[in-house]
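Class, look over these structure tokens:
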Amino acid sequence: MESGTQAFQQRSLSVKLWPPSHGTRLMLVERMTKNLTTPSIFSRKYGLLSNEEAEEDAKKIEELAFAAADQHYKKEPDGDGSSAVQVYAKESSRLMLEAIKRGPTVKDEEIADKTSIHETVFDISGGRRAFIDAEEAEEILKPLREPGNSYTKICFSNRSFGLDAANVAAPLLSSVKQQLTEVDLSDFIAGRPESEALEVMNLFSSVLEGCQLRYLNLSNNALGEKGVRAFGALLKSQNNLEELYLINDGISEEAAQAVSELIPSTKKLKVLHFHNNMTGDEGAIAISDIVKRSPALEDFRCSSTRVGTDGGVALAEALKTCTRLKKLDLRDNMFGVGAGVALSKALSLFAGLTEVYLSYLNLEDDGAEALANALKESAPSLEVLDMAGNDITAKGAASLAACIASKQFLSKLNLAENELKDEGAILIGKSLGEGHGQLNEIDMSTNAIRRAGARLLAQVVVKIPGFKLLNINGNFISDEGIDEIKELFKSSPDMLGSLEDNDPEGEDYEDEDEDEENAEEGNELESKLKDLKIEQGE
């Protein structure tokens, strides 16, 4: 017992967070490349980098951040490296923001056009999230006073307006509202008392009433029904919206009904995002009324909204009118089998679907099979399929495999946290290979997969050109199986994800405290980097 404790202490003390592995560094480059090429308020202002330029920038950023962090680490060689990790993440974030603000490289003849584009965007979201008072508003909003300005897009996100600052902004917004096409008022009343926040929203709404917007973002404002109705004047005057974002807004049943009631027309709507709200079934029914009136919809997100079977069925029925849909995200709801089957009838109509996110919906085998069968006959250009966390077994895997086999443009497959076991993993593995040259990422973690299933998956993906990552962590692979898999990846070890949580015995760890402590130490670096975001610093 004493020697075991001693060994554990030695193992714990030997954990070093710095330097990161080569795989971790590559992972960070990939994530930064994705950040740099993802459309945002920054890209609308500064331009969007190409994949090639973003990847080149990401590699340089990582090298500079690593050098800075490594130099810092050398000053504390006896430490565990945690402060070096912080320097690594912070420096990466700072350099990313610089790259985005620099924008894409342009030729001389394009500079004039690029400058004129920049002058159409007025954005005060940079810097720390903070309150703004009347005096600061006078100064920071000064460009809106310039006669003949050509601003068509404004972003007041990340700055909290009180009534005094709102009164400064109101006449300035009124002076430019006829030329505005995009308005971002996300997270612009944070920390204000409800009564003041509602006054501010009413004021902005009345001032902007009548402007013909294509883009409106009211996310992260804890609106609720009162907040939605405070924006009533603005919403009622919108007939040409193409993008509407109501993310993390406390959209309850009543609030969803208010949105449906207030917007007169959504015929041109292409993007509609409700995420992280408390919508529930009745609220989903109200949202489905909006969806029914949006035949041009291409991107619909209603994830993490507490929607159950009835609401899921209502949304599924409404989506049948949206035959142009390209991206569908319904993750993290409580649909169940019934809503899954209903949704399958809508999916069969989406010929242009490229991304579908249906994880954590309680689909089980019957729901998953219905959806897989529908997708098999539609969506020939599907690139992303996510059905993680749905209690899918080998029974459901057969239909999934047939669907996957038909998707030659598939680039990402996520079936994590199901119950596929070896039989299901082998079926999925055999559906891949030739004809899947675009595939670069597979997540089959936490599926009770053993040696045979894991080995076949590995044998398949190592032959796919350009493949980047196989995640089979959290399974029940024997030590011999692990050795076999590592041998298969010996020429490209970065393609194989971590296997730290694999359990060769096929059982949960009995000593949960020890497991949690080891996991916390061993994964601290990953956790610090996995959610790396661009900090809007100075």
Observations:
- The longest helix spans residues 51-74.
